[in-house]
Amino acid sequence: MTMKANGNRQRLFAGILVVLSVAAMLAGCGKESAKSELQKGVDAYYARDYAKAVEHYRAAADMNDAEAQYQLGCCYSKAEGVPLNWDEAFRWWGKAAGQGHPESVKRMEDLRKLEAVRQAAEQGDAEAQYLFAEHCFWGTDMEEDEEEAAKWFRKAAEQGHARAQSQLGLCYCDGMGVEEDDAEAVKWWRKAAEQDDQFALYRLGECYLDGIGVDMDWDKARECFRRAAEIKDEEDQIQYFASESQKMLDAILAYEKDLPAAEQGDAEAQIAVAKFFAGRNHDEEAFEWYRRAAEQGHPEAQYELARCYDFGSGVEEDEAETFNWYRKAAEQGHDLARNALSICYEKGIGVAKDPDEAKKWKEMFLQSGVPDVLFTTGMQLAKRSRPGDMEEAVRFWRRAAEWKDPSLDAIPSVAAAQYELGRCYYYGIVFQEDKAAGTEWFRRAAKNGDPDAKAMLDVLDSPAPQP
Fold first, then answer.
1. Quick check: pTM over 0.85?
2. If 314 and its partner were Cys, which of 287, 325, 327, 458 is the partner (CB 3.0–4.6 Å)?
3. pLDDT tens digits for 40-52?
4. Angle of helix 162-174 versus helix 126-138 axis, rounded to 10
């Protein structure tokens, strides 16, 4: 080989090395660019700028970044930054799954399972029809469709599937996917109850108790609640309705025990009977029993009667009567009535505005310093939802949540107020959203025994569920 040929080969090898180096450099840049776009997408997502998150996720996904493809699919499945589109969601999850992305692989497996359930449902399998209806009802791995859910619940129910019968009854009761029809709800709950479906027994008991879709019959109501309470099952939902059924049996028993004394004029019994009716949403009956006790001078009944006039529960709203009964209860030392009366003077509800009187009654209320009063007041304000009520509710919850007496730290109202305050921070209610502050309040509430806070922490501390 001549020196000239050898020189040409060396130059060729050098050129190839340059090309390879440039290619490697460009590949590296692309990889870094994809990671950068993904991170920008994550940052935008947590800032709740979903449209911007989608823009960055798509840029990274187009560079074949599996995590970005998965996140983009999640955005389509939750309608965050883009319209809801399950086909697009699974298309992107499919791309990520092809690269071995574990969450995407699971998503595609879920899709295959759903398709198998759908095919079995179309072939007439009752359990598959029920399961497919549940997917339609909750929008699991597909778009939520109550009409489609009701259709498949019916197919399974007509084959005698107890849970499908129970759910079809619920659809008729609440008008979900079908026209609301209490008689049809009772019909399907009765069929499911014959198979000892606990939810159906509980709801059928309520129907007999209140005369909804069926003639009122307390003996049949008791029997439904008794059967539901006696069913043993390890599933949490089943245990819940067993507990609720037992509560209803106890409430009926207490009502029947209190009624004779209430009719004889016993104020305490009258209040107990009123609360039974209020708990059943029979507002007119509750109002009448509160009125009887209030006219005997009972402060609790006077306060509750004022609330009936305040909220129009069982009677037309009447600001003058609202003020009148709050005043009567407040003058007897009822703490919640004192606070309500201060609001009446502050806002001119049933009386001319009087800042001095408002301040006087507010100070009398606050001097009581009872955490359960503070918490309950906050809950009542939150439920009323008039302008400014939520901000006022938070102020009461904070006073209860920050209660300083060490001997009262673990009482339920303190823990419950801490939980409510946590929810406000965590979800951005009144405050700017602050997950860390919300979680800290949840931990304080859980430490003090609040069950809702404990359940919330179980969710937050567990691996994040895939969207």
1. no
2. 287
3. 999 888 888 999 9
4. 30
